[in-house]
Amino acid sequence: MTAQLEHRAEPLLRRLVGAILRQERERQRRTLRDVAEDARVSVAYLSEVERGRKEASSEVLAAVCRALGLRLVDLVGTAHARLALAEGRVVVDLTAPAAGRELATVTTLPTRTTGAQVLLAA
């Protein structure tokens, strides 16, 4: 018996990535011009990327990430987490430092479909 996949409208990756970049730029209270200059791209192009209208190359994304003090893996990881969350999945970053603790907390989470539990530990 084959399981049917539930078809949902997934967000376009370019819109998701653009929103993440914009949120980070705004969190840093930086202007489009400032980040565009640091990334060596035009203000108009960065604006289009942030609004999800342009599909940026990996080179441009890496340059914008550097200008924002991000690693490309952080951008991709955040996009992955948001996509997973939109599907009701949980993503846990096991590499994140456990604030002031030597060991991370071990958590069990019931899955939505099977009721099975997933053990998370770091």
Question: Could you please describe the fold and organization of this structure?
Answer:
This protein is mainly alpha-helical and 122 residues long. It has two domains: 13-91, lambda repressor-like DNA-binding domains (434 Repressor (Amino-terminal Domain)); 93-122, no CATH class. The protein contains five helices and two strands; from the N terminus they run H-H-H-H-H-E-E. The chain has helices at residues 13-27, 32-39, 43-50, 58-68, 72-86; strands spanning 107-110, 117-120. The chain has a two-stranded antiparallel ribbon with strand order 1-2. The longest helix is centred in the N-terminal third of the chain and has 15 residues, at 13-27. It is globular, with a radius of gyration of 18 Å. It starts with 12 loop residues before the first helix and ends with a strand. This is Helix-turn-helix transcriptional regulator. It comes from Cellulomonas humilata. One of its GO terms (molecular function) is DNA binding. InterPro entries: Cro/C1-type_HTH, Lambda_DNA-bd_dom_sf.
